[in-house]
Amino acid sequence: MTAKHTLVAIPAWNERDSIADVIAKVQEHRPDADILVVNDGSTDDTARVALDAGAAVVSLPFNVGVGGAMRTAFLYAKREGYSALVQVDADGQHDPADLDRVLDGLADADVVVGTRFHPNSMYFVGGPRRWAMVLLSKSLSRMNRHTISDPTSGFRSAGPRAIDLFAVEYPADYLGDTVGSLAIAIRHGLTIHETPVTMYFRQAGRPSKNAVWSALYLGRATLAIIATTAKSKKTPRSDVA
After folding, report:
1. b/e map of 139-153 (b: 16 or more CB within 10 Å)?
2. Residue 159: domain span
3. Residues paired with 86 in a beta bridge
4. Which CATH number characterizes residue 151's domain?
5. How confident is the model at residue 116 (pLDDT cuts 50, 70, 90)?
6. Whole-number Å distance between alpha carbons of 151 and 201
7. Pairwise CA distance, residues 187 & 143, whole Å
8. Would residue 209 count as lying in a domain?
9. CB-side neighbour CA atoms (13 Å) of 19
10. What is the pTM assigned to this prediction?
């Protein structure tokens, strides 16, 4: 198999109004990358719009969530021999101008997370959701031994070892593609770094969960991470070959 370099994976659920613009911006900033849209059981014509815009499309028969869609993307990347995968949201919140920064970080890491929390960022989260994110960040950073300030950011890249791992073991539950996947990567000894990125408001559509649900989930995830941290102190980590 001939080795391929970069795959930009875009999970999409009913994003016909924004997907073409996202694809065009990815093509503008990384013309060397291949683009895969995982059509996650959309009931609109997201798949057709994505194909017309020049992306490859894999359509799932029903909605499985971002985690399940990204598991499909990692399986595709492993099968096709890609050495790097970067996840970009279909709703226009991620700025493809940051693709180079997120991908270049793979020179020193297996996973690079684009953090929305940095001095030049206009992104803001308040209330219980922010408190839960801070606790979760501290717990994951302690496990990782490097700072993870934005564990729920979906703008991230994965190198060869992460692709191999996530093609086999990737959580499909809510926020599993962000928090859960980081915990799995840490437990398998992968190196995780972060880099600053820009975050915009959604171009169209609506989020799958509201702020209250997200805060409750993040609180539960924090307790799970704390329990995992305690367990990991007793059990040595195993590396991915």
Report:
1. bbbebbeeebbbbbb
2. 4-232
3. 8, 157
4. 3.90.550.10
5. confident
6. 19
7. 8
8. yes
9. 29
10. 0.82
